[in-house]
Amino acid sequence: MSPSKTTVKGEAGIDLPLERAWELLRDLERAKHYVPGVTDVELTSERTEGLGASRRVITDRGPMDETVVRWNEGRGFVIRLHRDDEGPPPPFAEASFEYALEPAGDACRIRTALSYTPRWGLPGRVLDALVLRRATQRMARQVAEGLARHYEQAAVEATSAPGPSRSRGRGPGRSA
């Protein structure tokens, strides 16, 4: 019997134009701001984006490597989850995560999908059905929602950051 693959999905609206969301999504180091449990991200390849770009995510459960295996310019990418040259950490025999942006009027949507095959044969499939699928579904949803909130906040911060044309010393309650 061949291993069964599970795919869980999340999605969220982003109140930004697709092009602006893509500028943020293509920054592979940004994941530490919206992926639950990720405390740091370091690029591990010369490539900073595109097919073959790799990063190491530091999580509360230890480090994990992620390598871009599919890149859809302007729309998204798929990363393979692994540890060094080995497969992903247990309970996965193989795993990948997809980020996909879609236009939605003047804004856009992020769709996330974690696809994985559980380890351990029949016991792994039972674990998946009883516990794992629910937990990974929640995580895929949290990544999409966290990404949307972070991108919207980053856009607000970028537009409210002091620029060369702003006067110093002004603020709430201060007059010109």
Write up what this structure looks like.
There is one protein chain. The chain is of the alpha+beta class and 176 residues long. The chain has one domain: START domain (Alpha-D-Glucose-1,6-Bisphosphate, Chain A, domain 4, 2-Layer Sandwich). The chain has two helices and seven strands; from the N terminus they run βαββββββα. The chain has helices spanning 18-25, 121-160; strands at residues 6-14, 38-43, 54-59, 62-72, 76-82, 92-104, 107-118. Strand 3 and strand 4 form a beta hairpin. The longest helix is centred in the last third of the chain and has 40 residues, at 121-160.
Give the helices and strands, then pairings.
Layout: E1 6-14, H1 18-25, E2 38-43, E3 54-59, E4 62-72, E5 76-82, E6 92-104, E7 107-118, H2 121-160
Radius of gyration: 19 Å
CATH architecture: 2-Layer Sandwich
C-alpha termini separation: 75 Å
Q: Low-confidence runs (pLDDT<50, min 5 residues)?
A: 165-176
Give the CA-based shape: globular
Q: What's the name of the CATH homologous superfamily?
A: START domain
How much of the sequence is in beta strands? 35-45%
- Strand order within the widest beta sheet: 1-7-6-5-4-3-2
DSSP helical segment count = 2
Task: Let me know the number of strands.
Answer: 7
H/E topology pattern: EHEEEEEEH
Q: Roughly what percent helix?
A: 25-40%
What keyword list fits this structure?
disordered C terminus; 7 strands; alpha+beta; 2 helices; about 180 residues; Alpha-D-Glucose-1,6-Bisphosphate, Chain A, domain 4; globular; single chain; 7-stranded antiparallel beta sheet
